[in-house]
Amino acid sequence: YESKKIQNHALIFQGSMQEEYLKHVKIEHELRKAIAHNELFMVYQPQIDNAGYIHGVEALVRWKSGTLGIVPPDQFIPVAEASGQMVKIGYFIISRTLKEMKEVQRALGTTFQTSINISVRQFMEAEFFAQLLNALRDSEMNQLSLTIEITENLFIEDIDYIVPLLHAIQKCGIQISMDDFGTGYSSLNMLRRLPIDELKIDKSFIDTIVEDETAQKMVQNIIAIGKNLNMTVLAEGVETKEQRALLTTFGCDRFQGYYFSKPLLKDDLIAFFQKNQNK
Ligand code: C2E
Ligand code: CA
Ligand code: CA
Ligand code: CA
Asked: Could you say which residues form the signal peptide (predicted)?
């Protein structure tokens, strides 16, 4: 009986692995046509400061595939990276975002910060820095209003390559944000050595912050670390008034989440600004 049970488990395991593999292959194949077929686009989620003003936006990529429907970025970005498509998609993300945010800033007559996610693979590509500067030049957007979001997992890579590159990026006036802080490969010592402007507290900490005292302590400690290192601290995934109030008492500087706004298409972002700018 036991061995039959184990066999069944093995079969189920194999079956789901096979399914995963087929899905991966299908995504990889369809993704090759996504840019040419205009299936990739960007949405922008507002980031709000302590006084209630819009500080900036985070750009998030979306894929509406003709055959697969909506595929979330968590699913297709790893596939893009594994199949060598991330350089092209990464360039699309940066250039489309800068173009659209330049348009929004023109329409509103104001400037604001724009954050772009950069995956580890993307950051480690030899062309990355030049690509970033080219896209900035083409968009005529001021470098001072661009932020790149990197994750702690970057520290697994060659530190002697990463640290000077981050300094060079920051010297250009581009800000650096540490995304998903506390969920990855963490080294406080590393954090001290890097030129980081902003710490982003991951949504998983915010989710239980109202009822869970441990989560509260973690968040308070993350905010203290950020403050001690002269960084701005932003909480992501803020969904309720209670979460926002608690984060404010803890001294958090900025907020992002459904409580304020879901990620928006360019035109909806303009409308959001017009409604909330002077609040
Ligand atoms: P992330 O960088 O941690 O982005 C935050 C995710 O949380 C986004 O999901 C956002 O839509 C979602 N979110 C924001 N506020 C709330 C909230 O209040 N409640 C809930 N339930 N969710 C909220 P999304 O857009 O599906 O992105 C998932 C991940 O995919 C991102 O996590 C990021 O790691 C990656 N990603 C998205 N866009 C890009 C991109 O353009 N480039 C790269 N390299 N990665 C991207
Ligand atoms: Ca992010
Ligand atoms: Ca996150
Ligand atoms: Ca992330």
From this structure: none
182 lines ligand 1 (CB under 6 A): no
Backbone angles phi, psi at 205, to 5 degrees: -75, -35
Q: How many CB atoms lie within 10 A of CB 172?
A: 13
77 in ligand 1 pocket by Cβ < 6 Å? Answer: yes
CA distance 127 to 16: 37
Q: Give 166-178 pLDDT, tens digit per residue.
A: 999 999 999 999 9
pTM: 0.93
Half-sphere exposure of 132 (CA within 13 A, CB side): 24
Which of the listed residues 60, 146, 262 should we mutate to test ligand 1's pocket, taking the one with most ligand atoms within 8 A of CB? 60
Coil, strand or helix: which one is 61? Answer: strand
Q: Alpha-carbon distance 229 to 188, whole Å?
A: 10
207 lines ligand 1 (CB under 6 A): no
Q: Ligand 2 center to residue 149 CA distance, Å?
A: 6
Q: Is 179 close to ligand 1, i.e. is its CB under 6 Å away?
A: yes
199-220 burial, b for 16+ CB within 10 Å, e for fewer? bbbbbebbeebeeeeebbebbb
CA distances from residue 57 to 12, 50, 51, 110 in whole angstroms, order as listed: 43, 15, 16, 13
pLDDT tens digit sequence for 123-172: 999 999 999 999 999 988 887 799 999 998 898 889 999 999 999 999 99
Q: State in Å: Cα 45 to ligand 1 middle.
A: 9
Strand, coil or helix: 198 = strand
SS3 115: strand
